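It would be a great kindness if you could assist me with a short task in structural biology. A protein sequence and the structure tokens that stand for its backbone fold form the material at issue. I should value your view on which stretches of the chain appear to form regular backbone elements. The record follows directly beneath this note.
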Amino acid sequence: MIMKYIVSLSGGKDSTAMLHWLLEKNYPVDGIVFMDTGWEFPAMLEHIDLVEKNIGIPITRAKPRKSFEHWLLHQKVVAKKGPMKGKVHRIGYGWPSSLRRWCTREKVGAIIKHMKRYETASMYIGIAADEAHRQVEKATIKNKDYVRAYPLIEWGKTEADCLEYCKELGYHWDGLYDIFCRVSCFCCPLQRVGELRKLRKHFPDLWAQMLEWDHLNIRGFRGEKSVHDMDKRFFVEDQQLFLPGF
């Protein structure tokens, strides 16, 4: 059986740099897959298109089984225990949390679906050397293992190295990395509060979308009761900055 080598491309600085270095160093690349959650920054989607154009290799856009908006607001949730066991007891999973990471499940599921097409495969993962603790050597798809490779760790490339290299290549993500430390789903409740504060300031249209979803969502957002509560918190903090003594 012939091993196939697949690049997992998140679109961020690390995986983008990894992809270009792989091609530059003549590593085997048999496919590239990007997970389009539907919650990406518009500039990220434009970046993926640009990468595809620059390297001249098609990039597969994987999709979740249903839209993230569906899982957030409309999915029928059946109780697994208690008096409602076996019955629908809630509509919508609600915002993801550290204990309710349905978004991660959908991302992984879409990637696994893509990997099933290969009999034997190795996936390149863009984890930088200064985050080596995140690496996992192997993943299983229905009793069939595929290897995960971490070239950036092997090469000793840090996150700063990756961003610098991407800038040398002319990538800019329309300034996203000038604002945020990390760039993933714009509405991720698991990102730092400071990142959410910057989202509200620099991308009011995306923040407004979160507030709109929040009207229909009954589950909390990052320790707050709702996005609206977080919005009020940021408003108050902004006002305090203009008070005497601040």
User: Anything to note?
Assistant: The chain has one domain: 4-178. The beta strands are 4-8, 31-35, 60-62, 76-78, 88-91, 121-124, 138-141, 144-149. The chain has a mean pLDDT of 90.
